[in-house]
Amino acid sequence: MKRVRYPTFLAVAALLALTAAPVLAQDNPAPASEATHPARARNVILFLADAGGVSTISAASLLGYGEPLRLHVQQWPYLGLSETSPVDEFVSDSANGMSSIVTGVKTRNGVISQGPDAVRGQSDGAPAKTLLEYAEEQGLWTGVITTQSIADATPAASYAHSNDRGDWGRIFAQVFTPRFGDGVDVMFGAGRQAVGDQLNALGTGFDALGQTRARPIYATLGDAPAENMRPVVVSDAMDVHAATLRALDILQQSPRGYFLMVEWDAHTDDPRAGLQNVVDFDRLIAQVQSRVDLDDTLLVFTADHAFGLQVDGGRRGEPLLEGYDAWKASGDEADLVRLENVLVNRTHTAEEVPVLAIGVGAERVRGYFPNTYLFRVMMDAWGW
Questions:
Q1: Which tens digit of pLDDT belongs to each residue from 250-260?
Q2: What are phi and psi of 181, to 5 degrees?
Q3: 125, 198, 298, 366: which could join 117 in a potential S-S bond, CB 3.0 to 4.6 Å?
């Protein structure tokens, strides 16, 4: 039998230094060698579970499958924890959280892809160039898909710049005045009534705006002709499963590759709805993965911020959300939801959120890091 040698003090110190290096180096990672980066990505898909913190992802597996670690994304090989705070507070909203991911610049809550010199609702900050804008500049095709309003903070951070996340009319109008390339190619989202109202208040509307670029803004997915390769759909509610697969069919025809962002809401103000959204999103992600080539595509799953949900009871074989029906029937609007096994504090929280990745460049996702590091992960995957 081979003799086991116990490590010396110096060997232990060296080992600790090596294992600590990925965390300490996240802000300035060394360039990868050709051996560690044998290929570059043509395509990047960013899956964003809005408010999908660690506890929410864990609970979704319990709800969907009665067991932990059963979600598809939980099988992906690369995992990190992303810190989400804005520059001046501990707890992030979706505007700062998503802006940080897609620009590499932390900002302030309420601000869309502008620097921290912005004052919400008062003055603009320096525009921070987004992943989607880099992709457009490089001639890639791009897509933005969401269950939420197409002008809400998470999707807006990919294509717009604003000092106020609530300024939906002006935010959405930026689709038709892109800073780079010809702008978002495929755009499917909800919020038609609210966005339309704000556009009307600005003296325009969906029809008038669409005419500026000869791009009709359709009210449903079914209204957009199959031959339209640059469809814009703003509906009352968006079927993100159907929208994502349709977008993928279009974007995969790009001669140079594509960038696609897909958001699915995971807030657990209503714990059953929020957790089921995560389960459904995860199933969509598995389907998307089956349609792409991981040799030239990077898939990233993360959240813009965490949310106040915890599982503090329960047994295998019993319903996770015991007491949910009674709570729902009561119409209780309190900030605190107390079920038998689950406690929900209906607020954003400051803890880190999961990042899971697979495909080209996924190995860079490791350890703890600021959410701005994800911008570098995706840019490095492209080799830009």
A1: 999 999 999 99
A2: 60, -150
A3: 125
